[in-house]
Amino acid sequence: MNKPLLSLLLGLAVALGSAGHATAEQEPTAQTKKTKRVPALRSKVYSQLAHAQGLADKGNVTEALEALDNVKRKKNSMNSYEIAMMHNFYAFILYQEEDYKGAADNFKEVIAQDVIPESLHMATLYSLAQLSMMQNDYVQTVAYIDQWMALNSKPNERAYVLKAQAYYQSKDYKNTLEAISTAINLADEKGQVPNENWLVLQRAAFYELKQPEKVVQVLERMVALYDKPEYWIQLSNMYGEVGREEEQLAIMETAFQRGFVTKHTDIKSLSQLYVFNQVPYKGAKLLEQGIKDGKIDENVDNLKFVAQSLTMAREDEKAIPVLTKAAELAENGDLYAQLGQTLLNLDRNKEAIAAIKKAQAKGDLTDLGTAKLVLGMAHFNLKEYVDSELAFEQAIDHKSSRRLANQWVKYVKSEKQNALQLANIAAQ
Known about the structure:
mainly alpha
């Protein structure tokens, strides 16, 4: 046993102390047992209890329990206070041995006695509340805490926290919030910083009650008080949930600058925030750096995001190598088709033609008609009218490109005829 009990129990014997691991402050109300006088703890009984205590302190738990059993055999000659103290000794020894059910059973015997000091009664109720919590009996935890509070004129913060924890485990989030908020308010009134876990519980209760604005308020306080990376990230996410996108980005960017954005999910989130807030170049470069650093997988989706972000930022030239790599990894030809479009925009027509051919070779294109349009335009730019006309005629077969393809076919035929006429004139 690593917790000496003698001084503690001696304090209880004169009704001044608090019981064992129950640390809650106690201020008895006027509801004390004044009608009956508490009998004395006789020295002969106390010496036998102290003997058992001494054995327990030396680690001789079996002998200590046997000594208490000897006392118990004389129970008929003992008064209520002596019986309560005997069970109190049993409870603490069993608690130290992690026999929580046995400890709880003996604590129940303590409060079952007719006349005991109010302080012992209150301390035992609190111990029973704690033991009930340890045994996942949340209803009984609340019941014991309520009994304890009824006898205490000034319940402290930790009692409300214990009650809140029991309610939360029972999924009673409304009462959880009431109890934990009371604990936090008591700390605030004393000018004390609330325990971090209390705010975690309050945040969780607000979240379960679908009150995101309140979750934001709690997280703002947690960031200010504890400045932990995860709270910055969570606050950013919650700003997004309540539609405060600018603050969402500002908090996330600050977290990044402070070195808090290290997980791949958070890096991707910040990249997406940049794009959403019309800063695509930053989003692209952040994710690209994450890929280089090995924090982000170099897969099709991530490469595609980088390339598209660069394109949005009008950095087509920088998008080309990224899009090429993504197209090589892709299972279908869509990204090669997108690469062809980007190359066409840069007037890199031969490369655009090559990209579209690779798109067709990979197959399974989402929009083959548009790919044919790109192919036709690239050939046209190179004055390859026959190939251009063929590509546009093929594009007519697809609904998505039919109208534009028909226009192009007419235009290509006209330009082809003009070119032929010019050639004939030049030949004369």
